[in-house]
Amino acid sequence: MKTAYQVGDAFECDGGLIAITYSNNSIDTVSLCKAEISEVLTDIVGPQSVTISYLGLSTTFTIVVSKSEETPNYTPPIKDGVYQLSTVEDLFWFLTQVNNGNNKLNVVLTQDIVVNQNCLDRITTLTKAGNMESALIVWQPIGTIDYPFEGTFNGQGHSISGLYINDKAQDNVGLFGIISEDAVVKNVGLEDSYIIGNENVGSICGNNQGTIANCYNTSIVKGSQNVGAISGSVTKDAVVVNSYSVGKATTTDGEEQGISGVASENVKNCYYLTEKTDNTDEQAKTATEFKSGEVLKALVEGAKTLSAESNNNENFVLEVFDLDTELPGVAEIEDPNNPDNPSTPVLEVSSNSVRIWSFDKTVYIENAESEIHIITLSGTTVCRLNPESSRIEIKLSKTGIYIVKTGKTSQKVVIQ
Known about the structure:
This protein is mainly β.
């Protein structure tokens, strides 16, 4: 099904199928064209979520709209054959390329990328309001059954945050859906993300058939089977090394999960935060062990050992962390053994931070730093005002994707 469009293109439902699973486990498929489809705005550049409804059920997927003069010629910057990703648009370009068959790309991140700002905090607010889908850009995992990712993805120590996937029927869910035996994903963190799927669910990758190295997770991950804090499924010859999680990975019935959802001897030098006091898994570490620096030291020393054992394999060298640097996300862990010096829990946002989100046709801004600007993705200003209170509500009449800016903070919002 077509997911990449130029400005002005008509939306195409041909080729899309809906799978319906009944209570007796029988499955029917029907054409997407028979479903009710939310308004698709191909006159607005950027990624947008499309909601489909059928028989009282609904789900979402993402399309990407580019300027006609940018497509098909537009690509992110490229250096020595490696694509340089620095923006949300670059990330969605990469996703679209891989999932449409150009799946052997080599890419690097040149800076942190935020898809949905304050994602976990906004989910808490929006759940109470009754609708998350209208306010959050939905992520589609990179790599499919037909086109698994086969290249090298090097985060260079940067993070991707604010991914939102909430589909309990979807398999192979994470930043990456499926990576092949030749693929490498390394040196990247997934932060402030909400990853919910069915089978093979992980923060970095749902179905890992290749190499995951030097990665971390501070997000929520949940699924029914093969659920891992870093990788959901790890096949026989796949590896996960030098990685950790201070996020939360559970099955749908609340059972805590480790680094991988499948026991594997190829998960090496990896650690995850446990809430269990009686956890005997050697990879499970308490908040105290993370905050003391014990896990950081173990990661660095373990990486040296792995690198030596693997003939100095460059993918096993711990590039992201060193002994003088605190592990990302650890400072936010609440340490129950140190009540005199509590830290902020992982999912909370400090009271003085800027918060921007949308619900229905209203944009909400809390603790604005300075004058508020709301612009379209094409650069047209639709609203400009000075905040007169700590919480501002702005109603927009036209649906679409907008960028809200105040001071050094900017956030993309969806109005449907």
